[in-house]
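Hi Y.,

Following your request, here is the sequence exactly as I used it, all 160 residues.
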Amino acid sequence: MEKKLKEVVKILREKNRTISTMESCTGGAIVNAITNVPGASSVLNFSAVTYSNDYKIKMGVSADVIDNYTVYSMETAREMARAISVFASSDYGVGVTGKLGKRDPKNKCGDDNQVFMCIYDKNNEKYIDFNIYVDRDNRRDDKKEVLAEVIDKLCSYLRD
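Below is the corresponding structure, written out as C-alpha cells. Let me know if you'd prefer a different format.
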C-alpha cells in the first residue's frame, strides 16, 4: 500500500491537483496515511474527522440527506466527499462513513459492518462510489481494510 500512497501523491503533484478527506469510522486513517508520504503537504489541503451528524452538517453535508438516507449510506458518503472538496477548495474529496462492527445508539439503521466510500472529482463533477463489508477481529484491522480500498480506488482513478 505504501507504493500506491506514494503514487497517489506523485500523480497529484504532477497534475497540480489537491485532495481533502472527511472521514467518520476511519478516524483519520486515510489522511494519516497520506501525510506519511514525503511531499504530501503540497497536495493535501484539509481533512476532518466527523463522527457526529452535527459536525457532518456543520462541514456542509445536507441534513436532508442524512435524514432521508441515514448517516450510513452512499448518499452521505457522496455528500461528505463533495462537501470537503468545496470547503477546502480541493480538486478531490474523499468521504467515508459506516460502521466497524459496533452498534450506534444514535443511528440504529444500517449494517454493522458496511462502509460507504466516495471519491469526488470536483473538476469533472464526478462521483466514484464504492462500499465494502468489513468483519475483522478488531477496528484497527477494519480501518486498514477500508484504507487499502480507498487508496486502491484513488490510485486507479488518478491513473486514468
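The chain has a mean pLDDT of 92.

Thanks again,
Q.
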